[in-house]
Design a protein that fits this description.
- The protein is an alpha/beta fold.
- The chain is 40% helix and 14% strand.
- The protein has a seven-stranded mixed sheet, sandwiched between helices. Strands 9-10-12 form a three-stranded antiparallel sheet. The chain has a two-stranded parallel ribbon with strand order 1-11.
- The structure holds pyridoxal-5'-phosphate (PLP).
- Pyridoxal-5'-phosphate (PLP) binds next to helix 3.
Length: 390
């Protein structure tokens, strides 16, 4: 079976030709160290500055100096949470986040708990939304930071970011959002949405792996989490990954400029998939918000079967999907996101995440649904649980 259909774009994406074109000269022609004073160094720094400016424009930040390059979304989340918590420890030691955040946020918060901070992990409803009254009730005098992701990576639910940011500011609290899955999916305007800190990553938007950025509104203090040669205005030491940064800048530019057209294409293909699925497969549920969600991500629980077994059968047919977020997909633990959404364990364990790219055709979808229907029927035939009875 030679056919390969990649439906795991929330995990990572291919690097687009435009992004590659931007990066390639940085490897062997314009390869200076951005910290060097000579012409090679100045050229490298101008590439970094151009990328910073593209990101500023893409998210409508006020100044390009509000953008700090990191090694990806994980480091951006860590830098935001640990950085702000450490800088404002004297003001308070309470942080609010949600139970469905990526582990880059959750584990940074766990680290803070070890350091004596207190963290409230807000629950979500069954569609994956944080409740605003819950958020209001959890605010304390010593709350310094609220961190809520823009788009969930497993189910695609889009949070009410603007309202959450407004609540945070009404109480003098900083607001951070992990927008790793949001860039290119929803419009991000940090000024209009009153976002103080925002994390993004290149490899989810057709950029390279291992590079990301943190936006920090000017005037907000944060402490570095790495120490070294004082790059990135002392906030993130380490020689700048010039090719990666050039790729990130281009990827953000393309993702933010093209998001309306990308979304339209993704919606058409996602809706076609759901329509075909309804024709060919029975007994399943779609997880996440019914409409306030990313067009790229569809999370489905197939009753009476194990998601891992289904993933493996699909893989044999050349179809790549995922059972949970990328970094936890090798563990058999039920997804913390589906658990927080109150999905019974057996239903959560039958869940698969399909995440689409604009390169998927209707013919690809026909093939996927065909193979999916066969795989589901095969697994149900040997399953002790009767899917129809769930
Ligand atoms: C919502 C979210 N945040 C953070 C990350 C981590 O980003 P990176 O892989 O660039 O470290 C991911 C990646 O899966 C993600 O989906």
């Amino acid at each position: 079976m030679d056919r390969k259909i990649y439906l795991d774009n929330a995990s990572t994406t291919y690097v687009s030709q435009e992004v590659l074109n931007e990066m390639m000269p940085c490897f062997n022609v314009l390869y200076g160290n951005a910290g060097s004073i000579h012409s090679f160094g100045r050229t490298a720094m101008s590439i970094v500055d151009k990328a910073r400016d593209r990101i500023r424009e893409g998210i409508n930040a006020q100044k390009s100096t509000e953008i700090y390059f990191t090694s990806g979304g994980t480091e951006a989340d860590n830098l935001a949470i640990l950085g702000v918590a450490h800088a404002y420890a004297e003001k308070g030691k309470h942080i609010i986040t949600s139970q469905i955040e990526h582990h880059a946020v959750l584990n940074a918060c766990k680290q803070l708990e070890k350091e004596g901070y207190e963290v409230t992990y807000l629950p979500v409803d069954k569609s994956g939304l944080v409740s605003l009254p819950d958020l209001l009730h959890s605010i304390r005098k010593d709350t310094i930071l609220i961190s809520i992701m823009s788009v969930n990576n497993e189910v695609g639910t889009i949070q009410n970011i603007k309202s959450i940011a407004k609540i945070a500011h009404d109480y003098g609290i900083f607001f951070h959002t992990d927008a790793v899955q949001a860039i290119g999916q929803v419009k991000i305007d940090v000024q209009d949405m009153e976002i103080d800190l925002l994390s993004l990553s290149a490899h989810k938007i057709h950029g390279p792996k291992g590079v990301g950025a943190l936006y920090v509104k000017s005037g907000i203090k944060f402490e570095p989490i790495t120490y070294g040669g004082n790059q990135e205005r002392n906030m993130r030491s380490g020689t700048e990954n010039v090719p990666g940064i050039a790729g990130l800048g281009k990827a953000v530019e393309l993702a933010t400029k093209n998001y309306i057209i990308t979304n339209r294409k993704l919606k058409i293909i996602r809706d076609y998939f759901l329509e075909k699925l309804a024709e060919k497969v029975e007994y399943y549920q779609i997880n996440g918000h019914p409409y306030q969600k990313s067009n790229a991500i569809v999370n489905i629980s197939f009753y009476g079967i194990e998601g891992e077994a289904l993933l493996m059968l699909l893989d044999l047919s050349g179809i790549c999907v995922s059972t949970g977020s990328a970094c936890t997909s090798k563990s058999l633990l039920p997804s913390h996101v589906l658990e927080a959404m109150h999905l019974p364990k057996d239903i959560a364990q039958g869940s698969i995440r399909f995440s689409f790219g604009t390169n998927i055709s209707k013919a690809d979808v026909d093939y996927v649904v065909e193979e999916l229907a066969k795989a589901v029927a095969k697994l149900r035939a040997i399953s002790p649980i009767q899917a129809g009875r769930i």
